[in-house]
Amino acid sequence: MSKGNRFSRRVLSFSLLGVITSGCGAIPFLSSTATKNLDPRQTLEAYFDSLATQRFDIAENLMTASYRARLGKQGVSSLLHSTQSIQVTDVVDAIAWADQLGAHLPSAPADRREFLVTFQVDPSATGRDDWSVGTNRRFVDLLRQNGQWRIDAIGVSPGVLITGKPSPASNQTLAVVPIEPLRLGPAPIDRAIYTARQSAVDHGAIPWARDPLQVVHHDGPSFGLNPDDPATIVGQDVDPSSLVPRTRVAVRQGADSYVVTLIQPIRTGTSGIWAISGVQTAQAIGG
Predict the structure, then answer these.
(1) Predicted structure pTM score
(2) What is the b/e burial string over 33-64, where b = at least 16 CB atoms within 10 angstroms of the residue's CB?
(3) What is the domain count for the chain?
(4) Are residues 90 and 231 in the same domain?
(5) pLDDT digit string (tens) for 173-221?
């Protein structure tokens, strides 16, 4: 594997950026026979339409046997009954999304696809650990078996086509496709993604996301910073525009110095997560 592909497939905890999306709405359920040889997006839409209309047996039939086995009987039931209402609002090919971030991934094999899907969700009482009220985003993997596309994974982390590693059955650890070149300037904060990250922290996962220094080490590679670069907190205040807590971290990369700015986009205080909102050279801010 080339050096570029090794970097493109590195799995790190992430700060997701904006995506180019194409709209799609729910479609009526397509029978098992009718869905043979169709575009995988149609299976994706049929699956979530079945959840929305509480046709759980149909939705379960659109999952691969492997995915059902990884989840277990109780996990499948929990997944199928985790929403009161769910609507697909946007779908983007995950490889195209990753390439927009500079990943340069190979094309998907003929029997696999992965999408980054945006939903409007009203969670069920038992699904509030998995979904937020309102906008949510998930990576959805599909596998083609015997001419039929089926759901093979759903999670907040990119799957095997992006990372080179299979998604775990319970996918609470967030990941990013790193960008090799140094990227300076402001970084947009995707609240839907960071709401999922905050939820993961609240349920005992990724505790490092509450520590701005650790966030720089985990998320910095997607801005071209090495996770081993020395980092020191050099300032803490309140962002004058958003009025949320802000931390500045100095990062030394060889002979160069950079200042990484982080904010708490979801919740303030010790339980709130941190997100990188921009990277500048130290000289640019008078450092």
Answers:
(1) 0.55
(2) eebeeeebbebbbbbbbbbbeeeeebbbebbb
(3) 2
(4) no
(5) 444 444 446 778 887 777 767 877 887 788 787 888 899 999 998 888 7
